[in-house]
Amino acid sequence: MINPSSLDLTALPSMCLSRRSELPEAPAIYFAIDSLAQIQYIGRSRNLKKRWHSHHRQFQLDVIKNVRIAWLQCDDVSLLGDIEAALIEWFSPPLNGLRNELKGLNNGGLKSKLPDLMKQKGVDQKTVAAATGLSPTTVGKLYRSHFDRIDNHTVIALCKYFELQKLDDLLELVWEMEERGGNEVAQ
Questions:
Q1: Domain-by-domain residue ranges, the chain?
Q2: pLDDT tens across the length of the chain (187 residues)
Q3: Considering the domain 4-100 in this protein, what is its CATH number?
Q4: The pTM is what?
């Protein structure tokens, strides 16, 4: 097993997130590290290159900017889960922490802050669509506030247009509480 306190992240192989197609096809624990050397996410994969072909945290990491992927190759794939769990517990990356904070919650989704952003800027849906190159249908869905998913291009276009520095300036993750019959939203 590995001792997280002795792990030197700067000694691990790494590359820019934008070069993820060049990652090795190897089993590994991986670290998404921002420009301030803060670990944003830790994960595991039997095939690092394949895992990053379309990662579920991609749009969040794209908004952070200048993220690099470092990895610790682990030829014994049976150890990946235990090593990952130990490293997540030790480093507490914010994007992994989201999973732990949401235990016991269901019926969640993303809530767009687009209506408030548009009001602050004094623009309508048609203007946002034209300025960002997004379809009016996409902007309309986001304006209605709740939706199931959003692609990277849409997030980046909106963040650039509204000059947002953080993902949570555009989106909010909300969950309905299971204990209360699913009628109240916990934020």
A1: 4-100, 105-186
A2: 678 888 899 999 999 998 999 999 999 999 999 988 899 999 999 999 999 987 888 777 877 878 999 999 999 999 999 999 999 988 888 888 654 333 444 445 678 899 999 999 999 999 999 999 998 888 888 887 656 678 888 999 999 999 999 888 998 877 554 333 333 333 3
A3: 3.40.1440.10
A4: 0.55
Instruction: Classify domain 105-186 by CATH architecture.
Output: Orthogonal Bundle (1.10)
| Token pair for 125 | 């849906």
Query: SS3 of 68, please?
Result: strand
Residue 31: how many other CB atoms lie within 10 Å: 23
Residue 15 φ then ψ, to 5° = -155, 160
**Structural contact between residues 70 and 31, judged by C-beta atoms closer than 8 angstroms:** yes
3-state helix vs strand vs coil in the chain, percent to 5:
45, 20, 30
Amino acid of residue 47: N
